[in-house]
Design goal:
The complex is a heterodimer of chains A (222) and B (376).
Chain A: H1 3-15, E1 22-25, E2 38-47, E3 50-57, E4 63-70, H2 74-85, E5 103-106, E6 114-119, E7 122-128, H3 137-148, E8 155-156, E9 159-164, E10 167-172, E11 180-184, E12 191-193, E13 196-198, E14 203-209, E15 216-221
Parallel strand pairs in A: 8-15
Antiparallel strand pairs in A: 1-11, 2-3, 3-4, 4-7, 5-6, 6-7, 9-10, 11-14, 12-13, 14-15
Chain B: E1 2-7, E2 36-37, E3 42-43, E4 46-49, E5 58-64, E6 71-78, H1 87-104, E7 109-116, E8 126-131, E9 142-154, E10 157-171, H2 191-201, H3 207-219, E11 224-226, H4 239-246, E12 251-253, H5 255-268, E13 273-283, E14 286-287, E15 299-300, E16 303-312, E17 319-321, E18 327-328, E19 338-339, E20 342-345, H6 354-358, E21 359-361, E22 365-371
Parallel strand pairs in B: 4-10, 11-12
Antiparallel strand pairs in B: 1-2, 1-5, 2-3, 5-8, 6-7, 6-9, 7-8, 9-10, 13-16, 13-21, 13-22, 14-15, 16-17, 17-20, 18-19
Helix pairs in contact in B: 3-5
């Protein structure tokens, strides 16, 4: 799909004020909520900012793959989605459901199912990866909901926050290879500049999330 | 007496009389001779480019425990050579073993030479001639499990004193881009990629046959299905990931992935393929990746913004390979005749050329030429 075509749909989203107030740092594709009765079969670091995970589903040869690529901001991710879709052979991609991502595109009927979307500063893709087609929409919706959600339970502490003129820095006191940082600052246009989180206005909550372990949080008010 | 080390790539600047410079994978760095060492134990593969060889092929070896201040004649013979058969079944087993050895067995024999030992019984690093029928113009692509019995001559008869085992790849020519022989060590030929390429093209003697075998190999991977999205990278080619998936469960790939695999693996064996795209086309029915020609659902059509395939050198050759699909060569819509596009004319005015067999409508105009992607 040519990027000028996808950008026609993406540009209005970029032009909107970016106030979602969500930034994700260090996210890995295998950190998404697991499909029931599935087994994580493969985890790949495709590039420094890009990962892929593959799950075997319980039935037949069905598999699902998720790729996650991290950018510095939602705008950067939106522009990059157009570049990524250039690597799709299909001449056009229909829009995906409006409740998935800031914007989404998906494969049409009759083509192995896949959806491509942006949430926060991530581009995400969910593919039916095996011989048997899988409905990937429920999977994509769960991933998107998980990314948007404020963790239900989080222990205060464990994340050190410092502010300086360059912005906010969040340092988990300890971190595993699968952990990531989620910054929630409603109404803010968040972005990364080096190791600083820029753009937070008002209150910001920072969570350190590692699948299978306790989530830690810290709060700061500008 | 014992063998201490063996050097195959003893001249890293040349592949004319010794092995190529290779690595295990992108992260390993170059394999530096000696490829075989007793202590500390070292076992690294070696690779030869058949057509690059001119004159005598040599290896180097060093020994210890020899006679002090004396000379011994030393050689190495094929330890895989099957014993003389007895009986009919023995003869059949011997024939089978001979065939397997010819295909993937020891690369050749190390010619005898006099080796001088010092007062401590150690030799210098000695140059030996490697006599191999597989490094002559009749050689073919193979991964050779080489096992040598090292012998010395005493009293007119040869006595075994050691054995060594080596993995040796034979490719047809020096690997072409993206592969290099100097510079970026991550782009040296990977042994992990040679394993796959040699498995698909074993026995092939010509570059055309190699390119076809690799195209077929990519197309017929049983656990792969087609998706329109590139899965193994459009900037760099995620070859390591592809090789991992080949050995795992089901996965999907598109035309860019197929063209990358065909170009990269064929060029590893000495071919000269590159990748180019043509744009905006509605296809005729074609047999999808790894599809069963007898399954009507495997004959599909698409509206593509682009399709990427392999070309001999560049567009000017008008000669292509496509591992992503098989064309329908039948003019009868009720009957499908599958043909893998391998060394096929792209478009020279015949209705049986690749382009008219694939495109139902749309310009299919030649687009950006990608040449080769860096492997990661």
């Amino acid at each position: 799909m040519r990027s000028d075509e996808s950008m026609r749909a993406i540009e209005p989203v970029i032009a909107k004020p970016a106030e979602a107030g969500l930034l994700v740092i260090g996210f890995k594709a295998w950190a998404v909520p697991e499909e029931r009765e599935s087994a994580l079969a493969m985890r790949e670091q495709l590039a420094p900012n890009s990962t892929r995970a593959v799950w075997d589903l319980r039935y037949g040869q069905a598999r699902v793959a998720v790729t996650a690529t991290e950018y510095t901001s939602v705008r950067h991710a939106l522009k990059s989605l157009a570049d990524e879709l250039e690597q799709n052979q299909l001449a056009t991609l229909p829009p995906g459901p409006s409740d998935v991502g800031e914007i989404s595109f998906m494969h049409p009927d009759g083509v192995p199912p896949a959806i491509f979307f942006v949430r926060a500063n991530l581009t995400l893709a969910v593919f039916s990866f095996g011989r048997e087609p899988v409905d990937i929409l429920p999977f994509a919706r769960r991933i998107d909901a998980e990314l948007r959600a404020r963790p239900k339970e989080a222990r205060d502490g464990g994340v050190e926050l410092t502010y300086d003129e360059r912005g906010l820095r969040a340092s988990p006191r300890w971190s595993g290879p699968d952990g990531y940082v989620k910054v929630l600052a409603p109404g803010s246009d968040l972005r990364k500049e080096g190791d600083a989180i820029v753009g937070a206005t008002g209150e910001a909550e920072v969570f350190y999330i590692e699948p299978g372990r306790e989530t830690y949080s810290a709060k700061v008010k500008r | 007496m014992q063998l201490e080390e063996v050097h195959f790539n003893h001249d890293p600047n040349s592949a004319n009389h010794d092995a190529l410079t290779i690595c295990r994978n992108a992260a390993s760095g170059a394999i530096v001779a000696p490829e075989w060492k007793r202590n500390p134990v070292k076992r690294e593969p070696a690779a030869y480019a058949r057509d690059a060889i001119s004159g005598t092929v040599t290896i180097k070896a060093r020994f210890s425990g020899g006679p002090a201040n004396a000379t011994r004649k030393i050689r190495a013979i094929d330890a895989n050579e099957p014993a003389q058969p007895s009986g009919c079944s023995g003869f059949i087993a011997w024939l089978i073993q001979k065939f397997i050895n010819a295909l993937v067995g020891t690369i050749g024999e190390v010619a005898a030479k006099d080796v001088a030992f010092n007062g401590a019984g150690n030799s210098a690093l000695e140059t030996f001639t490697l006599n191999s029928p597989f490094l002559t113009p009749s050689g073919f692509v193979s991964k050779r499990n080489t096992v040598w019995r090292w012998q010395y001559l005493q009293g007119g008869s040869w006595t075994d004193f050691d054995t060594s085992d080596h993995t040796i790849y034979v490719v047809l020519d020096v690997p072409r881009a993206p592969w290099v022989q100097s510079g970026d060590v991550t782009q040296l030929p990977w042994a992990t990629a040679l394993d796959q390429a040699c498995a698909w093209a074993v026995g092939k003697k010509t570059k055309d046959d190699v390119a076809e075998a690799i195209t077929l190999g990519v197309n017929r991977v049983p656990n792969v299905t087609y998706t329109p999205m590139t899965m193994f990278g459009a900037g760099d080619y995620q070859l390591a990931s592809y090789l991992t998936h080949l050995g795992g469960g089901a996965f999907v790939m598109n035309c860019t992935d197929c063209a990358d695999a065909v170009t990269t693996l064929a060029n590893l064996l000495g071919c000269s393929l590159a990748e180019g795209r043509f744009t905006n086309l509605h296809t005729k029915p074609f047999l999808t990746l790894s599809g069963d020609p007898s399954d009507p659902a495997a004959w599909v059509t698409f509206n593509w913004g682009y399709h990427e395939i392999c070309w001999f050198n560049d567009y000017s050759s008008n000669t292509i390979w496509d591992g992503c699909l098989q064309l329908d060569m039948s003019n009868n819509p009720a009957v499908h005749v599958a043909k893998l596009p391998a060394k096929m004319t792209f478009d020279a005015g015949s209705p049986d050329d690749y382009k008219p067999r694939l495109i139902a409508s749309g310009p299919g105009a030649l687009g950006a030429f990608v040449t080769h992607r860096r492997v990661v």
